[in-house]
């Protein structure tokens, strides 16, 4: 078994490293750290260069590469500055759910926009009483009059203050019991 990076993977790694070295300045990192702000312009540049959503299928704005290639980019970004690298890498956090489980219409609407630097996704998973135990969601979703009514509380919403769309984990069937308690 060969554990060496392919030529394409080495190229991706080098490009991500060069981008981070050229764009992730100490001043920029300190500014966003002190202001608790998102580096939107840096994120847009990273998207324009194809660093986000590169594991999305071509038809949805990605490059059809694997998660490993995505990890190579995140690793190089975080090698330069973990705060900036993580902020940029998590901008497509919840869109992974859309990619794997969304309808064709949802994929067409959200994935190209995320990969293209036009939308940021948020994931509302954590609840005050159960943390991130997805088998014990208190938040409920009920369809009423053709629309979904959500009722519950979420905390620690990744990208909550900057997102254009949210993935909210909810319990739809009130009778379902958790498969296990651990």
From TrEMBL:
Molecular functions (GO terms): acyl-CoA dehydrogenase activity; flavin adenine dinucleotide binding
KW Membrane (keyword) present: no
One Pfam family here: Acyl-CoA_dh_M
Entry keywords, A to Z: FAD, Flavoprotein
Cofactor(s) required, per the database record: FAD
Domain Acyl-CoA dehydrogenase/oxidase N-terminal: 6-117
Name by which UniProt lists this protein: Acyl-CoA dehydrogenase
